[in-house]
Amino acid sequence: MDRVRLGVVGVGNIAQLNVPGYLAHPNCDVVAVCDPHAGRAEAAAAAWAVPRVFADLDSLLADADVDAVEILTPTYLHHQHVIAAARAGKHISCQKPMANSVSQAREMLEEVRRAGVTFRVSECAFHYPPLVRAKELIQAGAIGTPTVFRVKTVVGTTESEFQSGLHADGYTWRFNEKSPGGHLFDDVVHKYAAALWLFDTDIRSVQAVVRKGPVFFEAPTAALWEYERDDLLGLMEVSYAPNMHVRSHYYGADEFFEIQGTDGFIWVTRFTGEMLDLPPLVLYGSDGTTTSVPVDADWMAGFRNSAAHFIDALVDGTEPEMSGELGIKVLQLAFAVYQASNERRPVEPASIEDAVSPPWWPPMQGDDWSTLKG
């Protein structure tokens, strides 16, 4: 395949993050958009100079000029839409989380295998330059053997143009029975994915305490996990600070990653925002020196690079990150955190084959999203 003709399925809030990388790629033509909101679909097509607009998925999938699709629809529709796209013979990039349950994700992968198409879960963390460089440093032995991984997430408030322009109806389905969980499921999957990807090591067991916060926030949360390697542990903290301003061009949130090793440590001091007055990537070496590693730290870079990676994989005939199998492991980790807190005991992520929710979920009922056919 020399060029990829892409159809974008869903032009809601996250499309403005995921689509620009495709538009900029020299070997990609965005040829169609699909969304049940006709006005938004037409506006997106005009802004991106896309020639064809569809109101339902079946029509887009019937278009022989579409080679691949970027599925940006609500998570509860991924199962339906991925299976439809696979049966239509389209290559597929699917927004995270992969599905609402492990069993749904396995059914999706079976259809993908049967169709012989390429499938990946779109994950900006795998292509965010500070995290990419951190993984390279780990693999090069810059900090010796990694022993502890720590990630902090805080959600506060911001006044970014991006956040003020978000459509409210893009959130209602995240607060009700159409999602198995809240913020820990919808956003923290980025951090779960990074925890697996940075070390290419499975997680054996999880312990956690998850508290109920306002709306769909599950905070404060603290989690501890054991990797398959006995000498590597993971720690996660999630906080909600509604009265704290977070400097950001995007959402009012930020993250801090620390990888401690036997010889030194690495800090990735930002992700979604720019909260701290620190270099985005810091290496503390075995000789006691601190090095600020130059790298593009714009959160949007992860999305642009993720789009480019999918197109490059299709053109080159290689397997893209992240695979459906890894997408399932990320789901299992997310659900294991809920189950470990619910049952107050260690939980093996690999044992989870369906979905797990917090006991208070969902906080709302119903929404006004018109589903796409497929």
Report the structural category. alpha/beta
Largest sheet: 8 strands, mixed
How many domains comprise the coordinates? 2
Count of distinct strands: 14
Helix content: 25-40%
- Assign the CATH architecture of the largest domain: 2-Layer Sandwich
Distance between the termini: 26 Å
| Major beta sheet, strand line-up | 8-9-10-7-11-12-13-14
The CATH class of the largest domain is identified as Alpha Beta
Radius of gyration: 20 Å
The coarse silhouette is globular
If you had to describe this structure to a student in words, what would you say it looks like?
The strands form two sheets. The chain has an eight-stranded mixed β-sheet. It has a six-stranded parallel β-sheet with strand order 3-2-1-4-5-6, sandwiched between helices. It is built from twelve helices and 14 strands. Mean pLDDT is 96; it is low at 367-374. The longest helix is centred in the C-terminal third of the chain and has 20 residues, at 324-343. The protein is α/β, with parallel strands linked by helices and 374 residues long. It has two domains: 4-123 and 303-321, NAD(P)-binding Rossmann-like Domain (Rossmann fold, 3-Layer(aba) Sandwich); 126-297 and 331-351, Dihydrodipicolinate Reductase, domain 2 (2-Layer Sandwich). It is 31% helix and 24% strand.
